[in-house]
From TrEMBL:
Originating organism: Paracoccus homiensis
Main location: membrane
Example of a GO cellular component annotation carried by this entry: plasma membrane
InterPro entries: 2C_sensor_his_kinase, HATPase_C_sf, HATPase_dom, His_kinase_dom, HisK_dim/P_dom, HisK_dim/P_sf, RegB, Sig_transdc_His_kin-like_C
Name of the protein in question: histidine kinase
GO MF entry, a single one: ATP binding
TM ranges: 24-42, 48-69, 127-147, 159-179
Top enzyme class: transferase
EC number assigned by the record: 2.7.13.3
Places the protein is found: Cell membrane
PROSITE patterns: HIS_KIN
Amino acid sequence: MHAPDEISPAEIARSEPIRMRTVILLRWVAILGQLCATVVAYTMGMQFAVKPVLILILAATAMNMWLFLQSPRQSSVRSTVYQLVFDLVQIAALMALTGGMANPFALLVLAPVTIAATTLNPRQTVALGLATVALITLSAVVALPLHEPDGTPLRLDPLLALGHWFALVIGVFFFAYYAHRVTAELSATSNALFATQMALAREQRLQHLGGVVAAAAHEMGTPLATIKLIASELADELQDRPDLAADMSNLRLSADRCAQILRSMGRAGKDDLLMRAAPLHTVLDDAASPHADRGPRVEILAEGPVVRRDPGVIHGLRNLIQNAVDFADQRVVIEADSDSQHLTVTVRDDGPGYPAALLARIGDPYLTSRRIGPQRGEYDGMGLGLFIAKTLLERSGARLTFANGGPGAIVRVRWPLDRIVVDDRAVLGENPENTV
């Protein structure tokens, strides 16, 4: 059993359209803030280029009104890029008109690139970040100074201005990286949880299918019995017509064959539907059976108590066994042990084991191995197998631990007895066959 090299969340996240309503709302907030700052500065008697500032605010207002009237549900990626570039240019121009680095609201220039990091792909985000740095630099160089009410210009010490510039540049890349990373992690976790739900739903559908099969077998029993009875009577009445009598005989034999098939289906279906509990060995065998012929020998050394035959538990154990088989050299051993309080199932293999650096993170979504196991191809999945197994088994009350054990890796799944073990009487025997 081997584990996970990390897939960067950036590889999982994709550019997704942002709701136009969100873009418009954020811009209204920005416009309101710009207008309030302008009014306060003007009221305090600060001297600056009031008309150009108001024109820039009016331009942002006009654009937002136009977008509002267009009223599309979502903004395309291209439209989002154009709007963020517009916002960036507008904020940088306001900075240049109101003191540049001396403007206390200069940090708002970080907003467009932060939004870009949550909605655009890394290449577009980097491009917008570089454009932000360029516009910050330009606005610092060509900035018109603010003047106090008495006309004294407000100028920063050159060293302090340089420090402000560095702070903004560092902020551009820090906030962009942080926002992109958090968004990608949330997206990856959301997708992984969705995959877990799909896996559990599939397992439940397969289990419930048994009930459908049993019901269908029961409903078809009566029509088949009628067909068989009529075929027998017609065969007796058509003794003087050998050709028709032979057809009736074939029809009766076919009805008998259908009855046998339905009895088998009904028995299997009822077993699946009603057998909510089973011996531990049976549950482990059910989990391991899809991987029995994949190369390494799978040995089940467990004679434990009767346990719940839960689809989530079976699917979770199956994923653990699959991972062990993928990286085992020759054998995978499944063992069970119980005491007065806990039941523990151990899956061990003789493969290369887990990378020590990632041992503490095994079970996180989108960790995948890219090493090649002996005599089999590269296991290059999306790294969800162990995450799904861990999620499903923990929902059943289990606690998982991952470790290396000499050659190979070890997974221990430990349940409190009251969460997994049931009374022996819960196990049903074989259903009696229905006769048709």
